[in-house]
């Protein structure tokens, strides 16, 4: 693969993983979605969609507790699909390539979160001074542009040298570095649980928490089914609240936490 095409897919990976479209972030980074531009660029949309569908089955039920990625489906897609199309690989073979590539993406994401913590301190200082523009730059623009090398370069190099280079890179990483990144990533779920506790700690929302827990524990229903029911309950409550003209009082003390 030539360097120009590899660079295009590197930029695509960067666009798919930044927070520019925060509301659609998890949709944009999915293999089935990324297969469309990749297939159009390489002139083989049909095979790209077949490979993307196979990759999607791997990450269909994947969740990121506390923001910790179990695997980076976006990087796996932006490398595996172009490589498979260029080599004429079948979708079942492409799936085996995606696994080590997705693990590399987790390491990159943990590294990004580590050095992006510096911008959090910049935002805190700007907030203390009341400088909203500086706060906005530290919260969005600095991480947005600083993530370009971390996202674009590994994808471009992997496409230039092949997936064997990715596996060799993973094996060459020292154990202490792997352990450090794993520990850093393992701390992130604590933040997710803390945010969840801040929400369910409010007295008005505890019945919903108990209901969801009981449904999962005693009915055997999976999380997708429970999520559908939860959405319906939220819509019904919203409609009921609007029709009665009353709202549920919510404490401003973050649920006493």
TrEMBL record:
**InterPro entries linked:** GatZ_KbaZ_carbometab, PTS_IIC_man
Q: Which PROSITE patterns match?
A: PTS_EIIC_TYPE_4
The topology of this chain with respect to the membrane is: Multi-pass membrane protein
- The answer to keyword Transport applying to this record is yes
GO:BP terms for this protein?
Answer: phosphoenolpyruvate-dependent sugar phosphotransferase system
| Domain of life the protein comes from | Bacteria
GO cellular component term of the entry, any: plasma membrane
- Please state where this protein is localized: Cell membrane
Chain segments annotated as transmembrane: 140-161, 181-201, 208-236
Q: Which UniProt keywords apply?
A: Cell membrane, Membrane, Phosphotransferase system, Sugar transport, Transmembrane, Transmembrane helix, Transport
Q: What is this protein called?
A: PTS system, mannose/fructose/sorbose family, IIC component
Specify the species: [Clostridium] innocuum 2959
Q: What is the lineage of its organism?
A: Bacteria, Bacillati, Bacillota, Clostridia, Eubacteriales
């Amino acid at each position: 693969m030539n360097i120009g095409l590899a660079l295009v897919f590197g930029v695509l990976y960067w666009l798919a993983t930044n927070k520019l479209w925060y509301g659609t972030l998890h949709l944009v980074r999915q293999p089935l979605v990324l297969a469309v531009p990749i297939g159009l660029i390489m002139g083989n949309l049909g095979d790209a969609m077949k490979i993307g569908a196979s990759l999607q089955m791997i990450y269909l039920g994947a969740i990121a507790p506390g923001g910790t990625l179990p695997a980076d489906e976006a990087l796996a897609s932006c490398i595996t699909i172009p490589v498979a199309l260029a080599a004429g690989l079948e979708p079942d073979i492409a799936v085996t390539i995606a696994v080590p590539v997705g693990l590399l993406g987790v390491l990159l994401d943990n590294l990004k979160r580590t050095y992006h913590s510096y911008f959090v301190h910049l935002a805190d200082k700007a907030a203390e001074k009341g400088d909203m523009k500086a706060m906005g730059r530290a919260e969005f623009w600095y991480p947005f542009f600083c993530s370009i090398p971390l996202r674009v370069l590994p994808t471009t190099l992997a496409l230039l040298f092949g997936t064997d280079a990715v596996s060799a890179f993973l094996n060459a990483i020292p154990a202490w570095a792997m352990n450090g990144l794993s520990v850093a990533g393992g701390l992130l779920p604590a933040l997710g649980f803390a945010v969840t506790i801040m929400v369910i700690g409010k007295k008005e929302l505890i019945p919903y928490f108990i209901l969801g827990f009981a449904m999962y524990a005693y009915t055997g229903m999976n999380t997708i089914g429970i999520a559908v029911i939860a959405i319906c309950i939220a819509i019904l409550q919203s409609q009921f609240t609007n029709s009665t003209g009353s709202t549920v009082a919510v404490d401003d003390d973050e649920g006493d936490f």
